[in-house]
């Protein structure tokens, strides 16, 4: 079942200039992106810095104005709903942010941090609320006494889990995880990734997973899309992207992944050099005269590439 | 015989907390040779930056104490006074900091910042300085060096800023560069470009590089030798090939198993229980890693763990590696990538 479908999504930010702060141009942060998420799957979004990954994720939770296009969640177009109409959907879609150090309010106790979304939607007695919060703390592997502590009393991995507990209290269907482990050490990262997989099983969650660590994305995702300058340039099952990349940008991205085998590194330096010159010589095969990637075209039932 | 550039012997750096000193770097020794990249790896809080700042003598002297020997060109850097050290720093020893935006001066153009370093160490005329600066910016792969020369740090993307920092670090053709997490904040394509760039510069100047990182795959890509640090101590060291093909210390093996990679795809990742102890809690004796592998019997550890040579310049601390196995919890042990190799 399709849970989320983006159809030709565009998010353009105005650039203002001149004396009257008139709009002089636009940053086309997201410029015609379409993809679907099936219920229960993990879909990865990768691409270079500034390619529009976070903007896409934020558009789905309405943290960004959508310029045009549709965001169909269980068939309803979120992009066309007003702030009031969208409220019931806010429960179903939650976002986890990159930085566990700054995304939690340092002045609030864990109880208040986790209960905040709950308070917006339900009227609970303090004891009911406390019970729910403690249940979720238990799920994320933190002790019940944690409710009285403040964020600075926890390690990075623990803070990230507090953020996750907070996003789970409303029993969402879709979680948008924007680089949830980028700021963490490998060992803590492993803890959080395992944990996200357990939760997915337990609650039948669907994840939109934004990241730039391709090892992490491969580990987590069933399918993925590769973004480049606001456009999707390739989409497919994770193994198709990693084993058989077709777009020149995807090839460069895959070639840039550091390898755990020291023996192959000279080959990889050579491969990267080759791809850099191939990028220059075959540019027109992949980008139109305005430097915009072409629309995606299927090359198999699951694999799509932006080719002329 | 390779020529040694820097020899660190029994370096201990302690910070004052209250009225006691606690060691963040504890009896660390290793050598960096010409044309060599030595990677220092370990989790957050293991003392990697404290080590780098000790070499550069950038710690606050009121609250920090460094002992041992950092031998550079026949002199112990720890014995130099501020004036002598200023001559070495920036000119012969370059440093690339963890966070470029805080290390660069936000109010000064990139060009001026590079020239300032040249000013301090050279007698070039202003035209020569500008030429050298443009040359450096070109060398680090900045596409429009003339334009970047006039730009301020905030006007550059993360990758460009990191390149600008590298150009400052290499301005005086240093014999050694210390790079503290130079690519952690960057995406993979830019990370690869920067690492390729450092190697490229190295092949011309033969400089030595100390690369500090917690990303083991980066180490596998570029380093010649590895120093694995845990709680301020070296727990394992050797050539990259040796350590990746035959990792011995439980900490090294645990780190390798916690990385998502093709070898442990879709399996559960290994989690190292517990945390790196704070410096006030690090025991002066006993294996510091023992609390994180509680299923290994206490008698497997040495009372005062020493580094043991196991051949090929490969050293490992404590005897516990002989008894170590991954606990059957989860699939981590079944998919121990350090054994598949
Ligand atoms: N509120 C905003 N106003 C103007 N421009 C914006 C705004 N938010 C994002 N942008 C621009 O939109 C583009 C896409 O940004 P976005 O944050 O989505 O990138 P990203 O792919 O998430 O990158 P990263 O990997 O660095 O997080 C960038 O050029 C950015 O500068
Ligand atoms: N100036 C200081 N005063 C007191 N303690 C310090 C000081 N600097 C670092 N420490 C402590 O020394 C230990 C080592 O810190 P260091 O910054 O070297 O870690 P690191 O390995 O570089 O970690 P990261 O990967 O997070 O950068 C930590 O426990 C830290 O809290
Ligand atoms: S040649 Fe380089 S190292 Fe020597 S004095 Fe001039 S700038 Fe400094
Ligand atoms: Mg982002
Ligand atoms: Mg550090």
TrEMBL record, chain A:
GO terms for biological process: peptide transport; transmembrane transport. Coiled coil: none annotated. Belongs to the ABC transporter superfamily. One of its GO terms (molecular function) is ATP binding. Keywords: ATP-binding, Nucleotide-binding, Transport. This is ATP-binding cassette domain-containing protein. Residues 4-254 form the ABC transporter domain.
């Amino acid at each position: 079942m399709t849970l989320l479908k983006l159809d030709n999504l565009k998010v353009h930010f105005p650039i203002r200039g001149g004396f009257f702060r008139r709009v002089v141009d636009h940053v086309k942060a997201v410029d015609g992106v379409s993809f679907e998420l099936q219920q229960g799957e993990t879909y990865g979004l990768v691409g270079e810095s500034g390619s529009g990954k976070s903007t896409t994720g934020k558009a789905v939770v309405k943290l960004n104005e959508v310029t045009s296009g549709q965001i169909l969640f269980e068939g309803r177009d979120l992009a066309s709903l007003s702030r009031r109409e969208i409220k019931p959907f806010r429960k179903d879609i939650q976002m986890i942010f990159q930085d566990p150090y700054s995304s939690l309010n340092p002045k609030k106790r864990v109880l208040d941090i986790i209960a905040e979304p709950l308070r917006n939607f339900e009227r609970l007695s303090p004891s009911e609320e406390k019970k729910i919060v403690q249940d979720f703390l238990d799920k994320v592997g933190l002790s019940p006494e944690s409710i009285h502590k403040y964020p600075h009393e926890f390690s990075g991995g623990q803070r990230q889990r507090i953020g996750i507990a907070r996003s789970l209290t409303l029993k969402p269907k879709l979680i948008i995880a924007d680089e949830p482990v980028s700021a963490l050490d490998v060992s803590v990262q492993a803890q959080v990734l395992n944990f996200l997989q357990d939760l997915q099983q337990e609650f039948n969650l669907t994840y939109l997973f934004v990241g730039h660590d391709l090892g992490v994305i491969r580990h987590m995702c069933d399918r993925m899309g590769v973004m480049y300058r606001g456009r999707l340039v390739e989409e497919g099952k994770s193994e198709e992207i990693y084993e058989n990349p077709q777009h020149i940008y995807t090839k460069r991205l895959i070639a840039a992944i550091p390898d755990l085998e020291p023996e192959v590194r000279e080959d990889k330096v050579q491969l990267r050099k080759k791809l850099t010159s191939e990028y220059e010589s075959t540019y027109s095969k992949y980008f139109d005269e305005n430097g915009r990637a072409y629309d995606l075209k299927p090359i198999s039932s699951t694999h799509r590439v932006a080719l002329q | 015989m390779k020529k040694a550039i820097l020899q660190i012997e029994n370096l201990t750096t302690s910070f004052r907390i209250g009225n006691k000193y606690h060691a963040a770097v504890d009896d660390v020794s290793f050598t960096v040779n010409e044309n060599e990249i030595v990677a220092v790896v370990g989790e957050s809080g293991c003392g990697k930056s404290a080590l780098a700042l000790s070499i550069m003598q950038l710690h606050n002297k009121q609250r920090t104490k460094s002992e041992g020997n950092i031998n550079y060109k026949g002199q112990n850097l720890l014995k130099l006074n501020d004036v002598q050290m200023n001559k070495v720093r920036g000119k012969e020893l370059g440093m690339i900091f963890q966070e470029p935006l805080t290390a660069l001066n936000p109010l000064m153009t990139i060009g001026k910042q590079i020239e300032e370093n040249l000013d301090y160490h050279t007698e070039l005329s202003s035209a020569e300085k500008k030429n050298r600066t443009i040359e450096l910016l070109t060398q680090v792969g900045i596409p429009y060096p003339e334009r970047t020369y006039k730009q301020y740090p905030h006007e550059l993307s993360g990758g460009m800023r990191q390149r600008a920092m590298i150009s400052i670090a290499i301005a005086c053709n240093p014999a050694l560069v210390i790079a503290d997490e130079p690519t952690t904040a960057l995406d993979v394509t830019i990370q690869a470009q920067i690492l390729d760039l450092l190697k490229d510069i190295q092949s011309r100047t033969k400089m030595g590089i100390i690369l500090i990182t917690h990303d083991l795959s980066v180490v596998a890509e570029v380093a010649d030798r590895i120093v694995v640090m845990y709680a301020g101590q070296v727990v394992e060291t050797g050539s990259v090939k040796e350590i990746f093909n035959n990792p011995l210390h439980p900490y090294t093996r645990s780190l390798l198993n916690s990385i998502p990679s093709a070898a442990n795809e879709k399996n559960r990742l290994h989690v190292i229980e517990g945390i790196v102890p704070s410096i006030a809690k690090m025991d002066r004796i006993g294996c510091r890693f023992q609390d994180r592998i509680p299923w290994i019997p206490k008698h497997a550890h040495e009372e005062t763990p020493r580094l043991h040579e196991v051949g090929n310049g490969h050293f490992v601390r404590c005897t516990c590696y002989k008894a170590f196995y991954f606990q059957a919890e989860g699939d981590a042990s079944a998919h121990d990538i350090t054994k598949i190799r």
